[in-house]
Specification:
Layout: E1 3-7, H1 10-23, E2 27-31, H2 35-43, E3 48-53, H3 59-72, E4 75-80, H4 87-96, E5 100-102, H5 105-116, H6 132-139, E6 151-154, E7 160-163, E8 171-172, H7 176-188, H8 205-212, E9 217-218, H9 221-228, E10 238-241, H10 244-254, E11 258-263, E12 276-280, H11 283-300, H12 306-309, E13 312-317, E14 321-331, E15 337-343, H13 346-351, E16 354-359, H14 363-371, H15 377-380, H16 384-407, E17 412-423, E18 428-430, E19 433-437, H17 440-449
Parallel strand pairs: 1-2, 1-3, 3-4, 4-5
Antiparallel strand pairs: 6-7, 7-8, 9-19, 10-13, 11-12, 11-13, 14-15, 14-17, 15-16, 17-18, 17-19
Length: about 450
Amino acid sequence: MSVRIVCDSPELAVECLEGARAIGLASEPSAAENWLAEAAAALARDPIVAAVIADRVTLSQLVELAHAARQSRSRAAIALVSSEPDTERLRDAALDLGITALPEVDPLLSALALLQAGARSPWAASIRALPTLDRGRLRLSMGQGARTGGQLQRAEGGHIHWRDDAEAEGVDVGRARDLAPALSALRETDTRTPRIESSVDGVDGAAVLDVLFGPRRALSDPASKNALEPYGIPLPLEELCASPSRAASEASRIGYPVRISLASPDLRLWDHPDLAIDMVDNAARVRDSYRQLIGVAKARLEPDSEAERILGVMVTATSEPRAQLGAHAWPLPHGRVALELGFADAHGAAAGDATLTVLPAPLASIERALRRLAGSALLLSGTAATRRTHVDAIGDVLLRLSAFVNDRREELESVELRPIALLLDGTVEVREARVQVSDAFERSLRTGSG
């Protein structure tokens, strides 16, 4: 049976046809105006379907493709050859969704050849028969442990053949430079974990809706936390204060030293880090910090918005973080939630140390997403027990966030948590939040008046 390959341009279809012929892969490449609809229809009929896309792909499209594959119990693969800056993150998210995602046509064809041949765990194949150069090219793509995935041997013309035993006829899977990313993608494709649903018991939906009800807007940090709190999102010990004396009183109650930070929906601390003062250790400094932050904030806001857009300051208990993450989540089709996850400290933000995945997902998938971060050692170093504690704590927050976004997908556009502080004792707390409310309220009014 030939493999159906849907492309978004005739040029890519020709390239797929020529590449497939070069390795003897039976294929049916074609160009389609609506590649997603064509691929979804093909998945309902065929066990393996691939797509090669040069245009920008959205995460929602990948969710639709993964949903079609899961519904038909078929295997989906995709080559994202776009030069857009977020393409690599989209490939990572596709792998998390169970789609074998690759950066180019030839590695995709190598992966399809292995899938068509029924190769199980080809990343565990023996490479002893390969020349030294090919072994070096493949070594990082091979899994650890026993060599139980057949054999890889070099054939004429520099191509690699895969066979499941010594007597079987070899299957051409391309050159080593194309086989290496194919093996990595097949190894990283998350097809083994079942889809899970995230939910939180005992949520007071009316209380959440009271906070979200209203026109399209970005909620302040205190209001965002009020909406998130019924979902069990861990929050620090803190209090919103609208006067210097109240701030000093709450600081004494919480216990020194404290953090004093501005509360305003227009001036977020991740954009204005100078609007927070750490390690404030007495009442006089609390009052001075209050006046200082309010004065700086008024100078930055439009004059007509000062009164209603500066809520006061947050007085927060001080706790030392081991690492600080940032999460940005928004709803996707079929009950899924997009998650952009990265480091929220200055170095991580400047380096763009972030990844993209889809929730809800098992903790093993969340750990795999964390490992894609360049600074993952801050989260996953130490003993196995320490690593499990950190993954469990971070994963619990993310799954609760996923449940909130999915439950309230009609009332909100996105949620941002920054930072999610991983504390030295292994617990986490969300220090600032922003919920972007959608236009659902206005739409309901228009529907009612119509």
